[in-house]
Amino acid sequence: MANHLSAMKRIRQNAVRRTANRYFKKTARTAIKKLRSMEDKAAAVKFLPRVVSMVDRLAKSGAWHKNKASNIKSSLMRYMAAN
């Protein structure tokens, strides 16, 4: 266990951030799956910017690597163009 106040505070901060990151990552993954499973093209086109925004925010915060975010967005764009 930590002996310094600053180390104990860091442990608390890390726990809060880990929980938040898990929530945002899971929400984004679910949104990506939802987008890929949509049957209605118009609804999918309307939903795409929200998903891209989620992915960009995860990359900006460092929860996902910027290249991973770019690959996900690229694959979604190709998927939308094909369907």
Work out the number of β strands. Answer: 0
Rg of Cα set: 17 Å
Strand content: under 5%
Mean pLDDT: 95
The helix-strand sequence is HHH
Largest sheet: none
CATH architecture: Up-down Bundle
Based on Cα principal axes, name the global outline: elongated
What is the CATH superfamily?
Ribosomal protein S20
The assigned structural class equals mainly alpha
Number of domains: 1
Distance between the termini: 54 Å
Uncertain residue ranges: none
And the CATH topology?
Methane Monooxygenase Hydroxylase, Chain G, domain 1
The total of helices stands at 3
Provide the helix percentage: over 70%
Describe the structure.
Helices cover 86% and strands 0% of the residues. The relative contact order is 0.11. It has a single domain, classed as Methane Monooxygenase Hydroxylase, Chain G, domain 1 (Up-down Bundle). It is an all-alpha fold and 83 residues long. The longest helix has 33 residues. The protein contains 3 helices and no strands. The radius of gyration is 17 Å and the shape is elongated. The N and C termini lie far apart (54 Å). The mean pLDDT is 95.
Which tags fit this structure?
elongated, 83 residues, mainly alpha, 3 helices, Methane Monooxygenase Hydroxylase, Chain G, domain 1, 86% helix
Which secondary structure elements does this structure contain, and how are they paired or packed?
Blueprint: H1 5-37, H2 41-61, H3 66-82
Task: Explain briefly what this protein structure is.
This protein is an all-alpha fold. The protein is built from three helices and no strands. It has a single domain (5-82), classed as Up-down Bundle (Methane Monooxygenase Hydroxylase, Chain G, domain 1).
